[in-house]
Design brief:
Strands 1, 2, 3, 4, 5 and 6 form a six-stranded mixed sheet that branches. By secondary structure, the protein is an alpha/beta fold.
Length: 294
């Protein structure tokens, strides 16, 4: 990846097996910890010798799901964490969203999550933890145009330099109620669909710099909406900076006058949001977990 850096792998060997991989002898399930495979991108079929963008359910079972289960049992693993909501939204049909290319929906059969759950149930003690990765769904993206016209609405996160791009994507403001409700509805839909399956164990949020599940760092969160909410809830007498320089002015003032209170308030707001998402899970089933993938 980097100029002047040595290769991470110097050689590899490929073996053809004459028979199926045998399962690893393991202690009883109650004495085992969760150990498994994790994907950031929805590339399951390609990794187990299936067809790229496999849409046929029967081939997906034979060439992807069954091979993966055999591999997991051979290595002693029992968990799959897999992105079911990708960059452009959920990779499964749901009432709250329109499916678009780039969400991962084009990579698997329409019922692939149900296929994996049924296969895991048949195996016994396997767990599927769907992951939401940098999810900016259609309904989440639609208010961005309004933010460009009226930035005081605060739908997009803004840096201390007035920027809204975090790399590939803008970051939606994690404390904005419209964004929180739309992500919460995705959680509700996932629980409605899969909450009855014993193989469904929770939902993971993939936290990276572009994701809207957090502020992303102390250099972000200086939009008009968030600062006004902080002033209202904390009582900190922060000046009402205006104009194009208001973002660095807010940052500098907070650093000098109320930095710890600002950081504590932000942490509390994100914690409250996570608690809201976790309640959706535990209201469905008490054992379901919200997992933060750092």
């Amino acid at each position: 990846w980097a100029e002047g850096k040595p290769a991470a792998v110097s050689a590899f060997e490929v073996y053809e097996l004459g028979e199926a991989l045998p399962p690893l002898a393991l202690p009883p399930a109650e004495n085992r910890r969760a150990l498994g495979l994790y994907w950031e991108d929805p590339m399951l079929s390609e990794c187990f010798g299936g067809r790229r963008h496999e849409k046929d359910s029967q081939r997906f079972i034979a060439e992807t799901a069954d091979r993966m289960v055999t591999y997991l049992r051979w290595t002693g693993m029992n968990t799959l964490i897999y992105p079911v909501a990708f960059y452009q939204g959920p990779g499964f049909a749901m009432l709250a969203e329109n499916l678009v290319a780039g969400s991962g929906v084009e990579r698997h059969p329409p019922n692939y999550i149900d296929i994996l759950l049924r296969r895991f149930e048949a195996t016994g003690d396997f767990a599927l933890i769907p992951e939401i990765n940098c999810c900016l769904s259609w309904s989440m993206l639609s208010p961005i145009r309004e933010h460009a016209r009226t930035p005081e609405t605060g739908y997009l996160a803004v840096s201390n330099q007035g920027k809204t791009l975090t790399g590939m994507f803008p970051r939606v403001n994690v404390v904005h109620p419209l964004y929180q409700e739309r992500l919460t509805e995705i959680f509700r839909e996932m629980c409605r669909r899969w909450g009855d399956s014993p193989a469904f164990k929770g939902i993971q949020l993939h936290l990276v710099i572009e994701s809207s599940f957090w502020f992303g760092g102390p250099e972000w969160g200086y939009d008009d909406f968030t600062v006004a909410l902080f002033r209202q809830e904390s009582g900190v007498p922060m000046p009402g900076f205006t104009g194009e320089q208001r973002y660095p002015q807010r940052y500098d003032w907070l650093r000098q006058n109320a930095w710890e209170r600002w950081l504590d308030w932000r942490c509390e707001k994100v914690t409250q949001f996570y608690a809201r998402l976790a309640r959706v899970l535990t209201d469905t089933r008490p054992d379901l977990k919200l997992i933060l993938g750092l």
